[in-house]
Amino acid sequence: MANIGEVFGAASAVVKGMGITFKEMMNPTVTENYPDEPPKLQERFRGVHELQRDENGLEKCVACFLCAAACPSMCIYIEAAENTEKVRISGGERYAQVYNIDYNRCIFCGFCVEACPTDAITHGHGFEVASYNTSTLIKRKEDMLVQIPVGARPPVITESAEAGAH
Ligand code: SF4
Ligand code: SF4
pLDDT tens digit string along 58-101? Predict the structure, then answer.
């Protein structure tokens, strides 16, 4: 037969549990109205990659291939090119003329982000990449490159300027 201490212990546990229940009942209900409203994502959420620029608008990627080497899925494809006096795309000697990530294989592990010495490749918060057509899951540099920052001053020569020069 239970003694008085055990009865009080059990009753206090029930009161404590119900206290949490009532406290949660008083809190506002959290409902994500996706897709009508964008979901609230955690800052660390690993979404679609972004290729970053520096404060002058130059691309941070210097085509060192470290991200591709670190990728366990081997889904990063890079073609490097040299910056010239007329056309400067990145702050280093080279830049990524082609930078593709195959999202058919990417597992969003973040190894590429950790491996990058210039913080050029990061995870953004995009997640709507599902597709019935696998060819659309190869994201190109143009899909991932961020906009030139507001206030970036010339000379900033973008790849489109390079294309026009040929
Ligand atoms: S997140 Fe992982 S799998 Fe995806 S590209 Fe980066 S290293 Fe490769
Ligand atoms: S994203 Fe970073 S690690 Fe990858 S090639 Fe560019 S600079 Fe190197």
Answer: 999 999 999 999 999 999 999 999 998 888 999 999 999 999 99
Domains of the chain, by residue range, sit at 49-165
Q: Which residues of 107-130 are buried (b: 16+ CB within 10 A; e: fewer)?
A: ebeeebbebbebebbbbbeeeeee
CATH number belonging to the domain at 49-165, selected among 3.40.190.10, 3.30.160.340, 3.30.70.3270, 2.60.40.10: 3.30.70.3270
Distance CA 22, CA 27 (A): 9
Gap from CA of 106 to ligand 1 centroid (Å): 5
* Closest ligand, as measured to the CA of 47: 1
Q: Which two tokens stand for residue 45?
A: 């959420």
Q: How many angstroms separate the alpha carbon of residue 69 from the centre of ligand 2?
A: 10
DSSP 83: -
CA dist., res. 109 & res. 163, Å (int): 34
Does the reported pTM lie above 0.85?
no
User: Each residue of 17-41: pLDDT tens digit?
Assistant: 999 999 988 888 878 899 999 888 9
